[in-house]
Amino acid sequence: MPGAIYAEGLVKNFGDVRALDGVDLDVPEGTVLGLLGPNGAGKTTSVRVLTTLLQADSGYAEVAGIDVAKHPNEVRRSIGLSGQFAAVDEYLTGRENLQMVGQLYQMPKAAAKQRAGELLEQFNLADAADRPAKTYSGGMRRRLDLAAALIVKPPVMFMDEPTTGLDPRNRQALWEVIQDLVKGGTTLLLTTQYLEEADHLAHDICVIDHGRVIARGTADQLKAQTGGERVEVVVHQRDQIESARDVLAVLGKGEVAVDDHTRKLTVPVLGGAKLLADVIRDLDERGVEIDDIGLRRPTLDDVFISLTGHEAEVSEPEDEAAAAAAAGKKETAK
Amino acid sequence: MSAPTTQAPTLAPAPRGGISGSIRDSLVVGKRNLIRMTRIPEMVIFGLIQPIMFVVLFTYVFGGSINIPGAPEGSAAAYKEFLMAGIFAQTVTFATAGAGAGIADDMHKGLIDRFRSLPMARGAVLTGRTLADLVQTAVTLAVLALVALLVGWRTHENIGKVLAGFGLLLLLGYAFTWIGALIGLSVRTPEAATSGGLIWLFPLTFISNAFVPVNGMPTFLQHVAEWNPFSATVAAARELFGNTIDGVPKSVTGAWPMEHPILASVIWSVLIIVVFRTLAVRKYRNATA
């Protein structure tokens, strides 16, 4: 049975630019998919197709079991969208914004009003509820935007880089909200450039580049694919590097990499924490002084670099919009 | 941000659909635009200054020099009364440029993506906007009528007919708002929508019966002026205000709209609404932010 979000062979061209080149996705109900990729990889375009804002040139997509191309308005009842930019009216107060969105989700006026009040409390906006949104800070606008997306407690949520531009405290708080949503049974598709964020929140990860999914799996699977655990040692004295290399060569499971300049030695290992203890003991016995030692697992950054050949750069998120504008707005949307 | 109480997701209520759903959604969006107007009052105020200047300038600068053929010699009163319906009509049409700019501005904000991802009526974003603009136009027209009375404009028909005259002016303004909306959706910046929304209005409002009778124009322009939808509403309002001048024939080319200005005004306005609303809503649905 296809998941709550399902896509097969989505293709979308903006003029000569192929934004999506056959994207397949399948997100089981109640799980979080992290869509990861560099700028212009097709993350936002995928979200726009799935949220009925853009029509794909070819391919099939369904959300909550409903055909996105055929019944867009039915899909809209089931989704919440929080985009890269805070989609709020800056001249309306926070409360007025939420009430309006609630009513346009077809909630009765009184229910929209009540729900707006609840969300303002929940997102720590109660004090600012009756001030125009243009007086809000960036983090407050983001929270208001997210609250607007949650007003009907939709079964499927799309968040396009929800924490871009948030300070660490607000990012942490947003993560908690997201985790709680998922606990309640919401299915979430999350795009992000922060690998840490995907690692933290997503059950499954799709890495997308040049409009194609180039890898998928859990964070652990992707990391295992890139390589296993390593022990890293930084010795205190340069003349101790050779002794340390001997120890690591015996205990490690591969070639010992040495960086003379930083006095850092790295070796792939099996056996985790137990082995780390052995390394420390043997180094101690040979009188090697250690500045730093650690068991290092590959991060999603390592995965990213090995898959795409470049780092996940964090820069302005307007690339796709700019590409679309450059292509002369030829796309049609439903 | 406090952690929310965990809640099971729910579907949004089913859209009502049909006309009543469309009206409801349009009113919700219209309210949003009206709130914005109260928060940016300078926009409403600047929208008032220009037409007031027109009333005052035309009355005192041109009023003394323009003699309407058939009117008593040197009578500024006749021209003043003749002129007002034209200025009112010009005011309601010029307001459309602002509507276009507002829509162009909206289209480049994330809020449009939010609207387009909601289960709301298709045309409601634009209809709500045009309804709010209609309210603003009505306020402008009321203020303008007061200023016109102050500079000596008088009506000579019963209140029902006078109100009907204003009704036709508002209907024309509403129709033109949809043209402004289409322009706003077709350009890339609000600035382009403002200038693009104004340029065509100059020939449209001047090649008409709004400021001078068409008698003095070349024959070719007489035909254009008398078939101009704008002229029909000016003639209709003039008739309903009792501001026609006895010596001036209703029509010099025998154009049907000039012989039946009230009916023609309604037909033109409804036709413009139907055509341009259809085009604008389609354009909106195909646009991206």
TrEMBL record, chain A:
Enzyme class: translocase
Domain of life (superkingdom): Bacteria
Membrane-spanning parts: none
SUPFAM superfamilies: P-loop containing nucleoside triphosphate hydrolases
Database matches in InterPro entries: AAA+_ATPase (IPR003593), ABC_transporter-like_ATP-bd (IPR003439), ABC_transporter-like_CS (IPR017871), ABC_transporter_ATP-binding (IPR050763), DrrA (IPR005894), DrrA1/2-like_C (IPR025302), P-loop_NTPase (IPR027417)
EC number: 7.6.2.2
Keyword annotations: Antibiotic resistance, ATP-binding, Cell membrane, Membrane, Nucleotide-binding, Translocase, Transport
GO cellular component: plasma membrane
GO biological process, alphabetically ordered: daunorubicin transport; doxorubicin transport; response to antibiotic
Subcellular location: Cell membrane
A GO term for molecular function: ABC-type xenobiotic transporter activity
Residues covered by region (Disordered): 312-334
Membrane topology: Peripheral membrane protein
ABC transporter domain mapped to chain residues: 5-235
Family: Belongs to the ABC transporter superfamily. Drug exporter-1 (DrugE1) (TC 3.A.1.105) family.
Protein name as annotated: ABC-type xenobiotic transporter
Gene source species: Streptomyces coryli
TrEMBL record, chain B:
Entry keyword Magnesium: no
Keyword terms, alphabetized: Antibiotic resistance, Cell membrane, Membrane, Transmembrane, Transmembrane helix, Transport
Subcellular location: Cell membrane
Family matches, as InterPro entries: ABC2_TM, ABC2_TM_bact-type, ABC_2_transport, T7SS_ABC-Transporter
Keyword Ribosomal protein: no
Main location (coarse class): membrane
Swiss-Prot/TrEMBL GO biological process terms: response to antibiotic
Pfam families xref list: ABC2_membrane
Membrane topology: Multi-pass membrane protein
Cellular component terms per the entry's GO annotation: ATP-binding cassette (ABC) transporter complex
Domain (ABC transmembrane type-2): residue spans on this chain: 42-287
GO MF entry, a single one: ABC-type transporter activity
TM spans (from-to): 43-62, 82-104, 125-151, 163-185, 192-212, 262-280
PANTHER family in UniProt: DOXORUBICIN RESISTANCE ABC TRANSPORTER PERMEASE PROTEIN DRRB, TRANSPORT PERMEASE YVFS-RELATED
Similarity remark: Belongs to the ABC-2 integral membrane protein family.
Protein name per the record: Transport permease protein
Species of provenance: Streptomyces coryli
Lineage, broadest ranks: Bacteria, Bacillati, Actinomycetota, Actinomycetes, Kitasatosporales
